[in-house]
Amino acid sequence: MELWYTDQHTKDVRFSIKMKEQLISVESEFQRIDIIETYEYGRVLVLDGEMMITEKDEFIYHEMITHVPMAVHPNIRNVLVIGAGDGGTIRELTKYDTIEHIDMVEVDKEIVQVCREYMPFTACKLNDKRVSMHFEEGLRFVRGKKDEYDLIIVDCADPFGPAEGLFTREFYGNCYKALHDDGILINQHESPFYNEHSGSVQKAHRHIKAVFPLSTVYQCHIPSYPSGHWLFGFASKKYDPIKDLNDRKWNDLKLPVRYYNTDLHKGCFYLPNYVKELLGSNE
Predict the structure, then answer these.
(1) Spatial CA neighbour of 217 closest among 245, 194, 237, 236
(2) Contact 198/9 with Cβ under 8 angstroms?
(3) Which domains are present in the chain?
(4) Which of 43, 59, 85, 156 is at 20 to 30 A from 187, Cα to Cα?
(5) Catalytic-labelled residue, pool 12, 155, 182, 240
(6) Is 120 annotated as a binding residue?
(7) What residues form the catalytic site here (predicted)?
(8) CA distance linking residue 176 with residue 146, whole number of Å
(9) Strand pairing category for 149-155 and 78-83
(10) Is 240 annotated as catalytic?
(11) Annotated binding residue at 55?
(12) Does residue 86 have a known ligand-binding role?
């Protein structure tokens, strides 16, 4: 008998992957956590029935959420990462020797424990000495911070359940206060393609634009995500993501990456017309 995992992209669209086996299923205080082994996508993290990352294409997401701001800001020392329980964003950040400290805030301790055991390809750097873990709500944690970080990365799930508060104007305002005068905020911005998701894109962009002097969006292609077309938000107090890109400095680092490069960096900020219209309709 064949086993298939199906991710519900919308009420009318499904994405199915043939499974080898289910490795673990646990119910945490906040959500159900499943790890499944698949033939094409390797190991897959599923939260409350929704696919979060896959072994085959997680590098795209994690490289794009991390290296874009790192190639722009010339002096990132202190970083706050909200979410990121799988560890992939931490893995990418620890490639930079210049980073001195990373606060990782994850509401669900169980995710970290499960990923450490079953997804070592993303969780491999969670024990880095520069990483301090805080198991609490990101919204609550950032409220108490002022002028502490060069970079904040919001690597959270969709804007429902535990992550809902991380898509509000209050949250983005608190992030603004927590950043230094030249700080950058990066957030996963959902997909613009399906109507069920595009409203979240508009809402998040509107809230961030109301808080930060520079707010824009960039894109990448993640095959396992709804529609494959995914957006990230780039908000800054000072830096322009294209004009202030220091491609020579970043390329001299010779970091091991599989998706990101500085040519792609420039191109990912040039958006299709339908995305421009989506972002502009509520501005």
Answers:
(1) 236
(2) no
(3) 3-54 (2.30.140.10), 58-280 (3.40.50.150)
(4) 43
(5) 155
(6) no
(7) 155
(8) 9
(9) parallel
(10) no
(11) no
(12) yes
